What we know:
Layout lengths: L2 E8 L10 E4 L8 E7 L2 E6 L24 E2 L6 E2 L6 E3 L9 E7 L2 E7 L3
Antiparallel strand pairs: 1-9, 2-3, 3-4, 4-8, 5-6, 6-7, 8-9
Amino acid sequence: MAETERLICISAALEERGVGVRFALPEMGERVTGFAVRYNGRPQAYVNRCAHVPVELDLLEGDFFDLSREYLICSTHGAHYRPVDGLCVMGPCKGKSLQVLDVVERDGHIYLRMEDHV
Ligand code: FES
């Protein structure tokens, strides 16, 4: 199975625990989006779909971190997810996880890696 990479953003666009960058995920459906954030220096990316009800996490675009900047939070009912692996540790879907996306940072850019299913 081949892997493709596509550019999400430049590295500088992802500030530590700052605003996240959203991107389209046409491979997963017409309106599906993903998002990337930076946590402890590393880019992390997930499908932008809550594990409780399949809605996007950020009602305010790019606003993924809670006030403590320690968790990713769903704006709808407040599920808290660990930024390192997407596990829900508090809220209505505790124990479930966000769907992880593979991202790589190289030469000042952040790329999404997707497997080709053709
Ligand atoms: S839809 Fe995200 S916590 Fe309910």
